[in-house]
Design goal:
Length: 202
């Protein structure tokens, strides 16, 4: 079944997708933005009417909650003759998808961000896109101290990125590797990790 309504992001954004069909080529995107990988997955889910495209972005225990939101939102989009109602329903679905995804990471939901992606995450995404750590190296983000760990996680990302969208377990494995990899280079996560290590040492 296909959605009969043109939806807000599917209609307004032309997505050139790579890395398992989920990565926007633009660097100005991340998980809580309308142009990020989560929103890209949602666009595919709506275009194909296939919940599995977004199921892998939430924990297994949260899947039922997201499915309920997905069914409610898509039923509104299918039944409504109002473009505004359809847009609101999709916005509601995106916000809940991002909220549930971030909760699974242990992060608070702070709304849909329109801020540019941090250069560290842009470089991480570019490395995944290229299949090489070169973009991260050129940005000075690969050091002697983190190289071994970065290479280990990067290998896992590359090994799991080409999954069947209907294999939710495989999709979740990729998402976990992707999130772990990008968080290696996000300043706030790096600082939190260092503080945690110092506390453990003490």
């Amino acid at each position: 079944m296909k959605l009969t309504k043109k939806t807000l992001f599917a209609a307004s954004t032309v997505l050139t997708l790579g890395v398992g069909l989920l990565f926007p080529t633009s660097a100005q995107a991340h998980c809580d933005t309308p142009d990020g990988p989560v929103a890209a997955a949602l666009t595919l889910a709506l275009e194909e009417y296939n919940f599995n495209y977004i199921a892998n972005w939430v924990l297994e225990e949260d899947e039922a909650e997201l499915l309920e939101v997905f069914n409610l939102s898509t039923s509104v989009m299918d039944a409504s003759e109002s473009e505004d109602a359809s847009h609101l329903a999709e916005r509601y679905l995106l916000e809940n998808l991002v909220r549930i995804h971030r909760a699974g990471e242990g992060a608070p939901y702070t709304g849909i961000s329109h801020e540019p992606i941090a250069k560290e995450v842009a470089a991480a995404d570019a490395s995944i896109e290229a299949g090489s750590l070169a973009p991260l190296e050129e940005a000075g983000l690969i050091t002697e101290g983190n190289r071994a760990h970065a290479e280990e996680v990067f290998e896992k990302v590359l090994a799991t990125k080409d999954y069947d969208p209907n294999d939710v377990a495989a999709g979740r494995e990729f998402v976990e590797n992707y999130v772990t990899f990008t968080h290696l280079f996000e300043v706030e996560h790096a600082e939190h990790h260092e503080a945690h290590e110092e506390d453990a040492h003490e």
